[in-house]
Amino acid sequence: MTKYKQVNGIKIELTAEEITALETAQTTAQTEMNTEKQELKDAEADKETKKASGKQKLLDLGLTEEEVKALIGV
Fold it and tell me: What is the pTM of this model?
């Protein structure tokens, strides 16, 4: 597939090396976005796990469900 770039308003065909560099950059950017997206999902899951753990520890200490809800809103 032929790809082009514009230089000073003139349409110029990309070389094979430029196409490879462009595709590599696009792949790298997509990989970085996927990594960041997964890190955000992992952080949210970790937050929920810690919240549930904290709630359970309060219950284990003898607080009632209502007292825990009053403290942490869960």
Answer: 0.63
8, 11, 17, 21 alpha-carbon torsion, rounded to 10°: 70
- Tokens 């809103």 belong to 73
pLDDT per residue over 23-34, tens digit each?
Answer: 999 999 999 999
Yes or no: say if 59 and 65 are a contact pair by the CB < 8 Å rule: yes
For residue 48, what are its two tokens? 């929920």
Q: Which tokens hold the place of 4?
A: 């082009």
First vs last Cα of the chain: how many Å apart? 56
What string of DSSP letters covers 49-73? HHHHHHHHHHHHTT--HHHHHHHH-
